[in-house]
């Protein structure tokens, strides 16, 4: 049943304690930025895993507070209010893959008793993660989260991905569905029973492990291949989307009374407005292709110009998390599992042609302003070629390069490297640029309508009015150069040197 009760975001969070998983990540940081900006007293526990060199607290300072995001927040709030907000943050060391997150019994029980909501933005987003790792981080970690939540029916906001829809086609609604072509038993509530699938995967993993027991590297390499094969057989592009789909099913099947909402972003890219336009971390799906083109390592890509690529700015995803989280802890918490797709495809689709034109526009006219991305103007244009033609040309080109290598090995090895780059990018990302689906976000927009007008303005969720050409050329490409590739830092260093 659809809830129509309205709620206020600040009010919903007031006096609550949240556990945020994945705060060192790209999305997690923007969610934390939003939480620290709330006008309510909310306690935030960040669970961060320690690294070999740094404790969790050291990582909080180095990987979170020292990013431009939080210096910007300090400027916005003023030092006193910023420090007050920070005084409500507690950092604990924990790993989502370990039982009780690796905490001792007392720590775990205290955390379970004090937590009012878990926001899970932690995951491995590596499309080539070996299957056993991807399962551990993305799927089985749900058990550890639920063992914290179940005793007090603590709500969980889980971040998933629109691509759990795998190879499904057409208009994709915000529902829990099975992959295309798979026959999976269902519970009486209509949820899918995945234990059989997981047992088969575990059998495969242990037989590969037995064959390679003394060589961990060979085992992981094999598990990457196996992950890809199993994902394809199950109706997914990669082990990432397969294990994220399994996570959704595990969560809904085992929640036993815990309220659950799932936010599914499409491809998350730089912010369009908050905290400032262009904030971006990491070289994501579309960026890997833009980067290879900018470095003259890619001249063509298989896609159809009039098809869409579903990109969503990170601030709209973080805003969606805020609304879904506020709904979960407000008095109007839904009893059913709510799924919210955070995407652009059905309301304001970005075509491959527009994306390409905007990138080529910057490459041709303003490449010198973004020197981390463009070492020089790319030598060639970027051709979008229909997939069947692309693969035919690639295989002919591979034979040509193989022959040419016999006569001019040095020149041919450069060509071969370019070919390998193109093949790798195509293998990983072509699926995301050749969709047969359109993600629907009606439920997310309904959720947005249920908050006050001031909250609607503060937390936009759907990029309905976004001018994509302007966003890509004037926001995203600069953000890729300045933040993801560190151009802003090197500019600052050269200004400091000059001073
Ligand atoms: N990026 C996208 O385009 C995209 C698109 C759709 C959906 N999503 C979803 O959005 C969420 C956030 O993605 P993102 O782009 O922010 O990813 P990200 O930048 O790679 O961040 C992943 C976060 O998960 C944490 N993590 C991983 N393994 C962990 C473990 N064993 N214990 C504790 N923490 C662990 C990481 O911590 P460390 O710093 O310790 O590694 C990091 O904080 C994920 O659920 C992802 O599936 C992302």
Could you please describe the fold and organization of this structure?
By secondary structure, this protein is α/β, with parallel strands linked by helices. 50% of the residues lie in helices and 11% in strands. It contains 19 helices and 13 strands. The strands form 4 sheets. It has a 7-stranded parallel sheet, with helices on both faces. A two-stranded parallel sheet has the order 6-13. Strands 8-10 form a two-stranded parallel sheet. The longest helix is centred in the C-terminal third of the chain and has 21 residues, at 387-407. The mean pLDDT is 91. The structure holds NADP nicotinamide-adenine-dinucleotide phosphate. NADP nicotinamide-adenine-dinucleotide phosphate is lined by residues 22, 24-28, 49, 95-97, 121-125, 137, 159, 161, 244, 265, 267-268, 282, 284.
Q: Main β-sheet, in a few words?
A: 7 strands, parallel
Decide which structural class fits the backbone.
alpha/beta
| Average pLDDT rating | 91
Q: What is the number of strand segments?
A: 13
Unreliable parts: none
Compounds present? NADP nicotinamide-adenine-dinucleotide phosphate
Major beta sheet, strand line-up? 3-2-1-4-5-7-11
Beta-strand fraction estimate: 5-15%
Ends distance? 63 Å
Helix content: 40-55%
Number of helices: 19
Report Rg. 23 Å
Shape: globular
Describe what is shown at a glance.
This protein has 499 residues and is α/β, with parallel strands linked by helices.
List the main descriptive attributes of the protein structure presented here.
single chain; 499 residues; alpha/beta; 7-stranded parallel beta sheet; two-stranded parallel ribbon; 50% helix; globular; binds NADP nicotinamide-adenine-dinucleotide phosphate
